[in-house]
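Render this sequence as a predicted structure.
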Amino acid sequence: MKKKLGFEIAMVFFALICVVCIGLPSTSSAAGPELSVGAGAAFVPEFEGSEDYEAFPALFFSAKWPSGYFIKLSGNAIRANLAPSEVWHVGPVLQYRKKRDDDVDSKPVSRMREIDETVEGGLFLGFEIDNWDASFQWVADLSDEHDGSLATLAGGYSFRMPQMTIRIGVSSTYADDDYMETYFSVDAKDAIRSGLPKYSADSGIKDIGVDLTLRYAMNDKWDLMGLLDY
């Protein structure tokens, strides 16, 4: 079976329409964190590689200290910077991956074995200088579901205006054999159940993406955020 290069829109402008964030600067101490919280909805593929989409909660939280330490929850991942620096960031990361069950629009995939939700954990390293940012992230399965690991390189540039910030980014993720086998292979049993041909996926570049993020400051407390990821 020949490999095909697939394209999918991972998140479709969930923020410009649905997400409002409120900044809550700390007043208890000069060294206290600046807090932001937000919530909305994202439209994401039903499962990795799917052409069908479903709504999914989109949560945002950020606590940032003047020294450079931060904790950020964005989408499916939470990161903590343990480096006291405004330029360099390093620390742990946890991220959630949706399950793939029989409640999907694709009839062949609905007959394949289910893949439960997973939690992945690892480390990230990044930097921000002027308007440029770049990061490397490595995570491995903590839920004993795919037993694999993924490495992601990402970078971007931000255009900053008085009330709006626009960031354009690129990213790519490498996945090992265990991950690719779990999510993309079709074994003999799944081939019989689904009618799909048998296929064994190898490790390699899982995806290449571009993204656009917009953040508009409506006033000193309220922001409107949006993300398009392709």
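Summary. Helices lie at 14-18, 107-110, 177-184, 188-194. Residues 136 and 142 are 19 Å apart (CA to CA).
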